[in-house]
Target: Major facilitator superfamily associated domain-containing protein
Amino acid sequence: LRKVWPLLQQPRFFIFCCFVVLNGAFDGIVASYIFLMQEDMARTTDAMAHIKFIQGMTLFIQCFFEVPFMFLSDWFTKQMGANYVTSLVFILYFFRLLGLSIVGAHGPVWATLLVELLNGPCFGLGYTAIVAHSASVSPPGTSTIVQSLVNICYDSVGYAMASLMGGLLFSSLGGPGMYLVAGISAMVTFLLHLLSIRLLPPAQDSTLKVALRDEGETMALNEAISARNKDDVKMGLNKAVSARNEDDVKMVLNETISPRNKDDVKMALNETISARNEDNVQVVLNKAISARNEDDVKMVLNETISPRNKDDVKMVLNETISARNEDDGKMVLNKTISARNEDDVKMTLNETISARNEDDVKMALNKDSLAG
Model:
């Protein structure tokens, strides 16, 4: 309430609320007493047997024809302005109430259904114009409070005044007399409303803004900024989730996530995320494979591979060590096979030489024995 107090102090808004009360009173006097007048009209006629059906049709016509005018209210408001739409509604109430007075005095009861066709523009345009005007004059962050105050004026105060004044007039003048007085009041209200539009200046935004520079307005602005920031965060998260590839995710994360140490993060990213294609990966693997010991492998891997991909590092390390072991195994086997073959050759040569020497000895002995 403290935030809307500057608005309540403006004479223009107070007069607007008074016209809202009268608008609700004209609506309430029809809603409260039309059934009583219909029953009085049908009491001495054959229509009394169908009076409940006529009353049900009255409500149906009232509600049904409100809908199209609520859809058209935006066009009327843009063409005429909310204030002049309200003036139009007051003159329509004049014709509606005067029509009920004439039908109640001289016409059949079913003719009230034709008059109630005017409820469509009276309520469909009148209520939406009130809502639109109250929203336009509401300070930032106070639209709900202002709407509540305006609804109190329309539904509570207006209907209460209609019930009180309508009951007094109905008991003394009857239904037609009551609606005649209400119709004349609607015409007077129409003239006063036009006069207020011409004479009273509209609410000044600059004055309102100056008056609202208090703690309440600051809190409203902070709430609006906080809500805007939440929307921005959600939008950033949605961008990150909807990214279709790793590059888009990295770009969105770099834009939305604030690193604690930007220099370290940039250096780490430059050092670790360098392999974008197969050639870079092969260079990294060649460095790792050429390392002679585990410490060199770790140093190379730490310089080139991101620490985030620990599982990939282990896999590369295992593959590198396995490949190195396989190469060592092949080399050892080749050396073993070569040595084994060399030994076999030597043994074969020794056996051959030994056999050859033995044959030579035997042949020499045979020659000596023949000579003796």
